Give the backbone structure.
Amino acid sequence: NPNKRAKSIISLRYVQRNYTKTVPPFKFILKFLACYVHFSSREAYFKMLSKLLRTLLLICIPTLAPAQFFEEGHLIRDVRNNLTWLRCSVGQRWDYDTSQCIGQIIELNHDEIPDAIRQANQQLGGSWRLPSIEELESLVCKECEPPKVRQKYFTNIDRDAYWTGTQNYFNSRMYWSVNFMTGHSYSRFLAYQQLPVLLVSDR
């Protein structure tokens, strides 16, 4: 009956106009099926199909991206790179009451860093070291405000360049660093200069 078909189309359009933005996914699927039944137009069918696919992608994609970091007190497990980080810079300590790194960050040169690593091994256990340039760059959060790191996991990071253990290929007196103020990497510091340090170990 053309009159009944016209009424059903008007009713469906009314539902679309007023509720499309708030309906749950399963209702959206029902709407899609209703549209398929009522509309014989191929163009209308594919328009609704594209809406359905976009909705399903928005629902599913966030759950497909695996988490990289997991908190374990003063440690951060990086499951993507198979690493364990001390979440506080050298000189600081983890405060369990406030869930923050507290204390003064100590800047070190490459002659002083081995002593800091030995102390960390003795006091915390494990086998700590300087991160490589790639490992430290993996902490950079480009969309974050300075410091360019996820502060949920690495609290009170200095807005400064941090040492890595990667030497400059062309000048062995220089080492690469990652600047958490900008998120950029540089190889312009000499080994005798003092910078903040984060320590890492292999899982």
About this structure: The longest strand covers residues 161-167. The beta strands are 69-72, 75-78, 83-86, 93-95, 100-102, 161-167, 174-179, 185-190, 200-202. The helical segments are 2-19, 25-38, 42-64, 113-124, 133-137. Confidence is low (pLDDT under 50) at residues 3-23, 61-65.
